[in-house]
Each structure stands twice: as structure tokens, then as C-alpha cells.
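Quick one, C-alpha cells below. Sequence please?
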């Protein structure tokens, strides 16, 4: 396949380059947009950049050898996980992930002098998604709609019939008080909920929190919460953090919500707690199994969670709003411009050590 490249500041031409008024680096830099998520953004990125970049593109339907050829020439790469036998990349200065998760990379995977950065801006969409799931749990709007369509009034009159719940007055416990946790807390407060959170370290509780615990005090949070919202990433200290012993501490009608990463909650313990009605229910958006080219119909769990009636299941889509996508992508040209100008990068995750 013929190579495709763009110049910053052009729409679809490779002949008109816009040179930044404040460039620091004298030679033109090259960025590789790698993968199906990044490749379509080439023209948009060329318009957003204020510094001079050559933009190369590659997607998974092209030979990996083409990727290997491009990556060794690149100063920066924008993309997620690219599988294959990577060549040495001593010249790569920035690995920009256009989303939040980067658990597929470790410092030893990248050369010294290369910075891994991720992107935020998804917390609004995720927080609204969390609130929607909790409201569905309390009110059951979809059930009301379905039953009214099917059976009509069924002898009921306004004010008489089954009641629904409220979020107001209930306690939300947020496990992981970062971007997502704070956005969820702000919205829960508007519904009149009491909010506590657990983070890596305890501290004074900023509004709207009633308490900010350390993870060592997670038991306290679990015992008092009606809704437990997990927003943590996967890390050695968070993997399996919520296990069978933790579920035993929760209220019998408590609901666990996971919009962080699945392995934070022990898979078997989650299934057993739900199947045995040890807790009230769950709202799960992140999973233990994902489709691959080799297994496109991969089940989301080793256990038949989809057979349970006390679970709301969604396919890892809580952040998938148009607005969220645009907010996250705006990090990319900002960081490329910063790199070209020799300025500190935003959202640094780690430095390469290889």
C-alpha cells in the first residue's frame, strides 16, 4: 500500500507546510498515527497543530512491516496497543495514548528519553453514565415503560401501585478519587447523596465528600455504602482489591458499579456475590474478556454473569460520547506542540527505561 502522509497546517496536501512562529527544533518532526482509532485523525491533526510536523499514518489492515518502517523514523506516535515484533525505537520521544488506559505498556517497553502520556476528558461522560445506571436501579424507568406498553393501566390509578426508590439520602462510596471519581461525586451531590471516597492516601475531605479514606480503610467505606463505585485502574496494588472478604462486608442490598478496570474486582468473587444474592446487584461496564481477531465472540467473563437478573451489563461504552472523544483528542496536538517547543508535556504517565 502506498504510504500516506500529511503536513501540519494543510488539509490534504503534502506541499504546503505551515511553520510555527515559535518553533524550537530546527528539523521537522515526524508523528505516526497508528491504528484504526488514530489513522482517521490525520487531516484534523494537521489543522490543529501550530508547529511543523510530518504526519504519517498506518492502520492494522496494512502490513506490520510498514509500521516497523515508519516507527523507527518517528519522533512521536499516537495510538494504543500495536501488536507485533517492534524494532528498536531509540528516537521515539513521545508515545501519546489518545485515551486513558495504558496497562498494555510498562516503562521497560519504551526507550530512555521517551515519555508515555495519556488523555483525559472522558470523566463527564462516565459520570453521567454512572448516574444513569444508578437511577435505573432505583427507579426502573425502562421496566415502567415496558409494562405500561404491554398491559396498560392494569387497574392502577395515579398514586397507587408499586413504588420506586430514590438516590437522595443514600451513601455512595467511591473507590479511587481521581478525574472520574470527582466527576461522579459532583453529580451524586446534586442528587442529595452522602459521599465518601477511598484513595491511595487518606486526607481531609474536600467538598462534596463526607470522608476521604485511604485504601487501608476500604472496609469502612464498603460497610457504610449503598452504592460502591469503582474507578481504579489495574495495578499490582489494585488487582483483586475487592474479593470475597470485601463482598462479605457490604450491605445485603448494596450495588457495586465498575467503570475502572475489571481486575480490580476478583472475577469469581463478583459472580458468587451476585448469584447468591449476597449483595443487591451490580452495574458493570468493564470486563475480564474482550474480543480479539482470534476470538471475536469472546465472553466478557468466565462466569455466566449475563444470566443473572441483578446486573446491568454494558460493553465498555461509558466514555463513548462524541464530546468526550473530542476532549480527549485535543490533548494530542497540544502535547505534540509542547514537544516541538521543548515545553513540559501534559498527562505524563511514565518515562521509558529500556
Amino acid at each position: 500500500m502506498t504510504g500516506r502522509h500529511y503536513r501540519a497546517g494543510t488539509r490534504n496536501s503534502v506541499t504546503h507546510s505551515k511553520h510555527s512562529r515559535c518553533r524550537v527544533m530546527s528539523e521537522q518532526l515526524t508523528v505516526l498515527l497508528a491504528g484504526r482509532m488514530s489513522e482517521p485523525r490525520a487531516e484534523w491533526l494537521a489543522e490543529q497543530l501550530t508547529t511543523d510536523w510530518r504526519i504519517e499514518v498506518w492502520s492494522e489492515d496494512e502490513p506490520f512491516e510498514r509500521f516497523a518502517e515508519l516507527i523507527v523514523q518517528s519522533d512521536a506516535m499516537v495510538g494504543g496497543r500495536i501488536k507485533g515484533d517492534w524494532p528498536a525505537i531509540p528516537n521515539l520521544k513521545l508515545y501519546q495514548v489518545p485515551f486513558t488506559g495504558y496497562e498494555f505498556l510498562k516503562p521497560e517497553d519504551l526507550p530512555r528519553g521517551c515519555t508515555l502520556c495519556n488523555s483525559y476528558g472522558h470523566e463527564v461522560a462516565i459520570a453521567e453514565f454512572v448516574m444513569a445506571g444508578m437511577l435505573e436501579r432505583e427507579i426502573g424507568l425502562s421496566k415502567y415503560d415496558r409494562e405500561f406498553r404491554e398491559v396498560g393501566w392494569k387497574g392502577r390509578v395515579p398514586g397507587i401501585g408499586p413504588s420506586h426508590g430514590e438516590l437522595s439520602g443514600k451513601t455512595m462510596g467511591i473507590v479511587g478519587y481521581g478525574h472520574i471519581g470527582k466527576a461522579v461525586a459532583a453529580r451524586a451531590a446534586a442528587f442529595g447523596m452522602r459521599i465518601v471516597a477511598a484513595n491511595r492516601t487518606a486526607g481531609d475531605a474536600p467538598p462534596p465528600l463526607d470522608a476521604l479514606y485511604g485504601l487501608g480503610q476500604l472496609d469502612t467505606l464498603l460497610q457504610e455504602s449503598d452504592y460502591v463505585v469503582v474507578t481504579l485502574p489495574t495495578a499490582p496494588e489494585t488487582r483483586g482489591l475487592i474479593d470475597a472478604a470485601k463482598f462479605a462486608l457490604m450491605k445485603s442490598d448494596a450495588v457495586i458499579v465498575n467503570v475502572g478496570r475489571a481486575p480490580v474486582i476478583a472475577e469469581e468473587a463478583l459472580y458468587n456475590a451476585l448469584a447468591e444474592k449476597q449483595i443487591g446487584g451490580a452495574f458493570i461496564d468493564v470486563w475480564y474478556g474482550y474480543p480479539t481477531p482470534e476470538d471475536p465472540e469472546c465472553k466478557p467473563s468466565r462466569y455466566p454473569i449475563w444470566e443473572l437478573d441483578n446486573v446491568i451489563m454494558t460493553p465498555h461504552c461509558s466514555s463513548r460520547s462524541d464530546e468526550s472523544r473530542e476532549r480527549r483528542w485535543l490533548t494530542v496536538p497540544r502535547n505534540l506542540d509542547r514537544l516541538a517547543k521543548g515545553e513540559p508535556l501534559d498527562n505524563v504517565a511514565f518515562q521509558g527505561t529500556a
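The chain has two domains: 5-121+323-351, 123-313. The chain is about 25% helix and 15% strand.
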